[in-house]
Amino acid sequence: MAEVSFGVRVPNSGPLSSVANITRAATEAEEMGFDSIFLHDHVVWSTAMHRHHISSGAHEALADDQSADFYEALTTIGYLAAKTSSVRIGVACLVMPTRNPIYAAKQLATLDHLTGGRLIAGVGLGSKASKESSEFDVFGVPFSARARMTDEYVEAMRAIWTQPLASYSGRYIEFKDAEIFPKPLQDKGPDVWVGGWTDAAARRTGRLGDGWVPGWLSPAEMGRGAAIVRETAQEYDRDPDNITIAVEKLTVIDTDHDAAMARAVPTVATSSKTYERDVDQIQFALDRHIFGSVDAVQRRVEEFVEAGVTHFELKFIYPTMDELTRQMELWASEILPKYR
């Protein structure tokens, strides 16, 4: 069986986002034996998304006087590199079309050194921050071109990471004989994980990625997507066994199943108010995420593992940091040992 690893999303956004809480979540995850910590990325955010797209924290932690704080991912990784020593640190995912790939390649190479080769560079097409506020409009990036731009930007970054005098020619980015150092500490650069839950994202992973990290997919849907990744990799003469199949999953774990569900449902329900997805029935989310008693969580993890998943990025639902600690301790004592 392939090795299975587990990571924790830290609160660089959401109702509990702060430097202190980011640091606490990261250091505790490392101490408890989790394999990775993850941040996510947007530069432009919105009050609406702050209230309805909760990737860290819980619905109950929202307050009327909160601002839509979202700590920038790459600078925060640099900070966490000095606060941790062994846990891998990733971003899932950079909104790649809004990042200059030459500068991003330099930043990521530097972060690879600062983390001691622990960096995972997730990339995605990105989505609008809200119906009213578009990150792409702010950056002057054509929304319709974001897929092509992401492909080119990943290729351009890899050229910078691997060529002494780097050159690349595409529709959206072009440069010649760019001497950019340091090269990343990891051979050929940090792993590039592709975000997105569409077939196109799975195919992009097979062509370009070292990992696939979708969100709202069921075990059956993950199995289908993993097959697309493998088939595409083989078409491009790449080894599919070298590609990580990961998932982002909201999770609540408790010794009591009903208590876990009572914690999960209010936050999951806020997704019905997010334009990104149509969650008219709570069962849609329950079929795709990981909630419940220890036994229920173990069963759901196994369903994803059987579908080909080898890494879990866990987005715990917690109204306080103490509750996050309690759930991470339970996961670390009851779930992690089964995969060690």
Automatic annotation (TrEMBL):
<dbReference type="Pfam" id="PF00296">
    <property type="entry name" value="Bac_luciferase"/>
</dbReference>
<dbReference type="GO" id="GO:0046306">
    <property type="term" value="P:alkanesulfonate catabolic process"/>
</dbReference>
<dbReference type="InterPro" id="IPR036661">
    <property type="entry name" value="Luciferase-like_sf"/>
</dbReference>
<keyword id="KW-0560">Oxidoreductase</keyword>
<keyword id="KW-0288">FMN</keyword>
<protein>
    <recommendedName>
        <fullName>Luciferase-like domain-containing protein</fullName>
    </recommendedName>
</protein>
<feature type="domain" description="Luciferase-like">
    <location>
        <begin position="17"/>
        <end position="283"/>
    </location>
</feature>
<keyword id="KW-0503">Monooxygenase</keyword>
<dbReference type="InterPro" id="IPR019921">
    <property type="entry name" value="Lucif-like_OxRdtase_Rv2161c"/>
</dbReference>
<dbReference type="GO" id="GO:0008726">
    <property type="term" value="F:alkanesulfonate monooxygenase activity"/>
</dbReference>
<dbReference type="InterPro" id="IPR011251">
    <property type="entry name" value="Luciferase-like_dom"/>
</dbReference>
<dbReference type="InterPro" id="IPR050172">
    <property type="entry name" value="SsuD_RutA_monooxygenase"/>
</dbReference>
<keyword id="KW-0285">Flavoprotein</keyword>
